[in-house]
Amino acid sequence: MKRICVFAGSSQGNDPAYLEKTQMLGKLFAEKGIELVYGGAKSGLMGVLADEVLKGGGNVTGIMPTRLFEKEIIHPDITKMVEVETLHERKSKMSELADGYIALPGGFGTFEELFETISWAQIGIHTKPVALYNIKGYYTPLVNLIDHAIQAGFVPKDNRDLIINSDHPEKLLELMHHKG
To answer: Which of 65, 69, 98, 100 has the least C-beta neighbours within 10 A?
Structure first.
């Protein structure tokens, strides 16, 4: 995998582990020569991840709709910034560039991007690996909800395999590599 799209929070959360584990992932991206594709902001876990990739000599591509330029602080040091008109174009461009996806802890925007990506995989729009970086069990309630949806008959059992889940960055990338 040469490029991975990461969805992440625009804040850092209230546990230092979110920051530390995000930094570990960024260092790993740089070491393995994986280009980061993300929303382009300097804030939150998004900015932490981009900073670590850049610090390690890696490449970072940010994709941001013009109307968010005023709301979010654009990361000034990233390798490349792609300006698009809408959030839909942003997600489409991310998908076009990425070989896989990782969701770090985040809020509604992260959830929305994650679920759209899983939905696209479910209906065959892409076959790229989708992973949850489950720092401190952040995504465990979501995994439990997905398992509940499977048990209740709303999600086909084999679709559970669409989501990779790990709290260890090396293992996460290894699982993604084998699936991709």
So the answer is: 69
Q: Dihedral sign for Cα 41, 25, 171, 145, please.
A: negative
Structural domains in the chain, sorted by start: 3-179 (3.40.50.450)
What tokens appear for 157 in the block?
């059992």
Nearest CA among 171, 102, 176 for reference residue 139: 102
CA atoms of 8 and 110, how far apart (whole Å): 6
pTM (global) more than 0.90: yes
| pLDDT tens readout for residues 77-88 | 899 999 999 888
pLDDT tens, 134-150?
Answer: 999 999 999 999 999 99
Q: Give Cα 124 to chain centroid, integer Å.
A: 19
Q: What is the pLDDT of residues 27-39, one digit of tens each?
A: 999 999 999 999 9
Amino acid identity at 7: F
Residue 34, burial from CB neighbour count under 10 angstroms (0-12, 13-18, 19+) = buried
In the chain, how many H helices and how many E strands?
6, 7
CA angle 133, 3, 43 (to 5 degrees): 60
The CA-atom distances, in angstroms, between 6 and each of 61, 86, 150 are 11, 18, 26
